[in-house]
User: Fold dTDP-4-amino-4,6-dideoxygalactose transaminase from Pseudomonas arsenicoxydans.
Amino acid sequence: MTTIPFLDLASVNRTLRSELIEATTRVIDSGWYIGGQELEKFEADFASYCEVKHCIGVANGLDALILTLRAWKELGKLKDGDEVIVPANTYIASVLAITENNLTPVFVEPDSKTFNLCPENVRASLTDKTRVLMCVHLYGQLADMPNLMTIAKEHDLLVLEDSAQSHGASIDGKRAGNWGDASGFSFYPGKNLGALGDAGAITTNDSELNNTLRAIRNYGSHEKYKSLYQGVNSRLDEIQAAMLSVKLKYLDQTVAHRREIASIYTKGIDNNFIVLPVSKDSDVINMHQHVWHLYVVRTEHREQLQAHLSKLGIQTLIHYPIPPHKQQAYSQFSTLDLPITEQIHNEVLSLPMGPTLSLEQAEEVVRACNSFKLAN
Ligand SMILES: *Cc1c(COP(=O)(O)O)cnc(C)c1O
Assistant:
């Protein structure tokens, strides 16, 4: 029996039930369901949260990444076959966005401690076809953006952040979404800022990109029945925008709670078989703020640890079991030699984490981790 679920989404949304119902009712009664005031308000609020000029709502996080690369192609900044550097251990969506645009993913080994892009490995992977750095802020911690931006400037590269797991994460007070030329966000229900369905957004300080994206998400059109581009239908509808406006108000509060849970895990878990995640929050030179979308430990004995925790009623998940280059969909990359990435995928295990996980439950997870022993 599960007594501590990995993430209890019903309880997360129940805490805001009356506000969410009020917002839903407002949209139902308005008679306006797509492209209205709710979207405008959320776009303005989220842009201001990220401290950027523009936020463009789209249908989901994958589209946010796909359409940004697509817009750069429309603007003549990218062409078929250009190379996009991406951490090899990312979630599949980052890679799908690249190949969907006929661009070439260049898989780079991450830093094994932070799970994020390693600047030295990025430098070693640059070619005369490299045009974009896709910086994925995995598990809630920003990639090493100060150094990655320096590389991008030196080599005139576009920087696309994949911020799907890192709403509000920052370095030196500068948040995810405000580092690169553009940033894709997901508001999938389980993300730190989650809708009650699919939703996503792009943030950028570039007005030309903003304009192009607004057309591409809407049949390539700014003006009804006039298409500038062969666009798509990828819109963030009014009900989800209204849900997100309610939830954005509580985002910092839920991040604070996640940080408290993470600190209980980090201080409490003490077991030679379990390697704890490295947060750069104590880096006093570059103040880092980890938002702990996931608390990911590593162990050479994952199956046994997962079974042990499960027996004690604790649900864990694996983010992610198979790296992109080992997916059937990407068989052309299966012979790449990426040992750090493969080790990460063999060893990672995500502990329960979320805004309604109690501190007592977190202590119980700590005790369960500490009582783990190898079976003979
Ligand atoms: C969730 C996620 C996405 C995709 O977002 P969707 O809204 O599910 O399409 C992209 N990249 C990363 C790193 C993610 O975690």
